[in-house]
Design a protein that fits this description.
By secondary structure, the protein is mainly α. The protein is built from 16 helices and no strands. The protein has a domain of 243 residues: MetI-like (MetI-like fold).
Length: 376
């Protein structure tokens, strides 16, 4: 209304309001890239080895545990510093805004330039995101065959050698589902307790926030390496226990619960609880009748995140997964390391099943996330 052109409006108004979110998102992307392991291990090779790959090589391949421990400590220190930056950006730089429903703010493209710009963006995003996934699914049905077939999916259920020690790859699906469900329950319980601790007044939350978020930034390789060292002696000798993987996945999934629930809990006006207290409601009644309904969708989003992350987790599992109970990512990694087109086809089929489970989970997240404000 004061005559500023669109570019000036973006530079002087929109961009300053977006900068805290852009800075926090950029920091989070850098943290995830810094802690990446599976992609680097499969695609990078020794020439492009990162800190996480070197920890894996030194500990499992060369058994040089002192050097692996020193590298893990350096990685942990770096990620803690980055997570402190991320949590400070989330807490201190975000501008208070009056949020409105998306349908009240969105508008249809008005010109051919806007339609072309949207079309180019959608095309680039589709190629980068969906082309590799579509190629994987297509190859799962066609690799090494003249016509599309379910052969490799059926091979996942077979024991071609007839060995009593052989585990059909399809059993990894049940193992992953079981571990993911247990880890999700643990992550929701611990994450909710952490959220209430972070919303307490005082300076304590300033330092607890990056500590609770540290598993999100720490490489799963470092977590797995720490588990095999810390949990190998009584009374916590869990290296051969079923519970070691759910516990590891709980640590990885809990930060997602925290970031999904924390904004919902912080958004509850104190006057609502105060009014309930004035009317005689006990603390337990206030929690059940006020807090739980308002954070329920955030809990569901966080739980779905934790479940999905657990299903696809590879870095920690490669250290601590038991041979008789492999998860889906472990089976895919092992099949890719075996020669033969059948093993390759089974890896593609297992990857397709894992992708299907994760896609269903993220569709649920998107559906629930329309009514909840999260930090992801």
């Amino acid at each position: 209304m004061l005559g500023a052109p669109p570019l000036t409006v973006f530079r002087r108004v929109t961009l300053p309001l977006l900068m805290p979110a852009i800075a926090a998102a950029g920091t989070l992307v850098y943290i995830f890239s810094f802690a990446s392991f599976g992609v680097i291990l499969l695609l990078g090779g020794a020439r492009h080895a990162t800190l996480e790959v070197e920890i894996y090589q030194q500990s499992l391949a060369l058994f040089n545990l002192p050097l692996a421990g020193a590298l893990a400590l350096a990685q942990l220190t770096a990620t803690l510093l980055m997570m402190i930056v991320y949590t400070r950006l989330q807490r201190h730089m975000t501008q208070p805004l009056d949020l409105a429903a998306a349908r009240t703010l969105t508008r249809q493209p008005q010109s051919w330039r806007e339609r072309a710009w949207i079309g180019v963006n959608l095309l680039v995003m589709s190629v980068l995101i969906f082309a590799p996934l579509a190629a994987l699914v297509e190859r799962a049905f066609t690799v090494g065959m003249d016509a599309p077939s379910l052969r490799y999916f059926s091979e996942l259920t077979k024991n071609p050698r007839g060995s009593i020690t052989f585990i059909p790859p399809i059993e990894a699906l049940g193992n992953s589902l079981q571990i993911a469900m247990v880890a999700t329950v643990f992550a929701v319980v611990l994450g909710t307790l952490a959220v209430y601790l972070l919303t307490q007044p005082g300076r304590r939350a300033r330092w607890l926030d990056p500590i609770f978020m540290l598993p999100l930034a720490t490489s799963a390789v470092t977590l797995g390496f720490g588990f095999i060292i810390a949990l190998d002696e009584p009374p916590l000798n869990l290296r051969n226990s079923f519970w070691i993987l759910p516990i590891a996945h709980t640590l990885i999934g809990m930060p997602f619960v925290v970031r999904s629930v924390l904004p919902s809990l912080r958004g509850i006006p104190p006057s609502v609880r105060e009014a309930a207290a004035v009317m005689g409601a006990s603390e337990g009644v206030r929690w059940w009748r006020i807090d739980v309904p308002l954070i329920a969708r955030g809990l569901l989003v966080g739980a779905t995140f934790a479940f999905t992350i657990s299903m696809g987790e590879f870095g920690a599992a490669v250290f601590i997964a038991r041979g008789r109970e492999p998860t889906m990512p472990i089976v895919i990694f092992r099949l890719l390391g075996e020669p033969g087109i059948v093993n390759f086809g089974q890896a593609l089929a297992m990857s397709t099943l894992l992708m299907l489970v994760c896609a269903m989970s993220f569709l649920l997240i998107e559906r629930l996330n329309r009514a909840v404000i999260g930090e992801f």
